[in-house]
Prior knowledge:
The complex is a heterodimer of chains A (99) and B (472). Chain A is built from three helices and two strands, in the order αααββ. In chain A, a hairpin with a 2-residue loop joins strand 1 (84-85) and strand 2. The longest helix of chain A is centred in the first third of the chain and has 17 residues, at 22-38. Chain A is mostly helical and 99 residues long. Chain A has a domain at 6-42: Histone, subunit A (Orthogonal Bundle), CATH 1.10.20. Chain B has 472 residues and is α/β, with parallel strands linked by helices. Chain B folds into two domains: 1-293 and 377-472, Amidase signature (AS) domain (Amidase signature (AS) enzymes, Alpha-Beta Complex); 301-365, no CATH class. Chain B has an eleven-stranded mixed β-sheet, with helices on both faces. Classes of the chains: A mainly alpha (99), B alpha/beta (472). The interface between A and B is large, with 53 and 70 residues.
Amino acid sequence: MSLISRDDVAHVARLARLGVTEEELDRFAEQLAAVLEHAADLATLDTAGVPPTAHPFSLVNVLRDDVVGRSLDRDEVLAMAPAVEDGRFRVPRILGDAP
Amino acid sequence: MSAIEIARDVRAGSRSARDVVEEHLATIAGREAELHAFNLVLADSALAQADEVDRRVAAGEDPGPLAGVPVALKDNLCTRGVPTTCSSRMLEGWRPPYDATVVTRLREAGAVVVGKTNMDEFAMGSSTENSAFGPTRNPHDTSRVPGGSSGGSAAAVAAGFAALALGSDTGGSIRQPAALCGVVGVKPTYGLVSRYGLVAFASSLDQIGPLAGSVADAALALEVIAGHDRADSTSIPHAAPTLSGLLERGVDGLRIGVVRELVEGIDPDVGTRLSKAAAALEAAGAKVDEASVPAVTVGLSAYYVLATAEASSNLARYDGVRYGLRVDGDDVGAMYGATRAAGFGAEVKRRIMLGTYALSAGYYDAYYGQAQRVRTLILADFEAAYGSYDLLLAPTAPTTAFALGAKTADPLAMYLSDVCTIPSNMAGHPAISVPYGRGDDGLPVGVQLLAPALGEATMFRAAAALERSLVP
Lengths: 99, 472
């Protein structure tokens, strides 16, 4: 029995907002299972009482002074966007039927 | 010619930066079609930058410690107005509105950017075969990979296309290609070099560093790019280290441990050279014996959980809204799915899937949580080892350069190329790969010196001693 089914792959692809083909569902199921099987060695370690490390150094967050500074040029940024309108990013409809 | 020699001559006015850059562009023209080290060669702007350096020298100004030095930049470092693709269709044609801090610092030091180098897509890979624009080939044997993900940067230095290059190292992506291409590669302490303008892969592991033809050139490059940057919240509030003046100090009295767990299973070609490196350090006055860092054996698994989890989050930004590729859909959800399906290559998709799985409900603690606890164990084991040793010695990669196509069908086999380099990323520690001769197969072998956090000065001293031991 594989560690990860086709349905699992389809579910994860939905979470990742990633369109996948039927063929990719099969291939990812097999390849992800191989990597997860290798990663099973993690479960064999006794980590009771071991705190997690999210980051190698515990730096304190740095806040700058709240003063107006130079920022990226809006037109230069928008020039790189796939679609813009009135100085904003334009996207397809998000909810419900188009007006 | 080394970066140090170029800068010395250009600053002294005995050679023009234009002459240096023209020579490198000619070298590129001679072999780039065969190697494909670059995604983009910036001949015109490089010559313009060189002329500016020459103008400043003529005016009696000092253009800086890298005056006229041709540098190649990995194509995940943002360059204002110049395409930055990460070797992905997703960012093809994207021109960033700002420069990465390291790019600004190189230019301010007088360096000349000659091109953007090929890489595994979004730095995910160990062979540069995952580039959407085709693989880079190893200058020592074009049937072999240059390693990766900074394979274009390593090949560019090895082929004489640039005196220096920058790469990024998340799990070995500077050191492993440096080893496979026979050049020096450095992963600095996490936070020593600003990541502002480095396209993010796994933010708690990524670090920018130099690739160079010699330890001294790498030291000079690191001195220029290191140091605190307000634009990166993970930047350590330290000044850049001083390294260049220390390289002659030798290793007399240093305690160096050969990491037993990282020697197991490596190719005999690599093992032989590693033993010679250990003997050379001992002959130079270091105390060398075998060290144990047990938790590194699970580093690979923990890394591929943490790095993919962070990547799945970081790469969520490629959604077709603000920059890069968009494939239209009926609604925004369909647009996301279609854009990401078309824009990402197979390995990037695989890692996003793996990371999303590791972070998903029901699996989070077993994979992501456990990998973070294992990271603590790795740090603790390194800390224990550094109680007895000043530095650790290990192979950089378990094999010499492998053939193109040898590992592309088996992701896990490819991941195993990083087994010796990953522990330093997990710990945030610095490490340097130094070329140490060739194996019986005639291909370069790299050995790696590992140091505790901010231990660059001692690490570079020992690296320079290793390099000197090769000179007959």
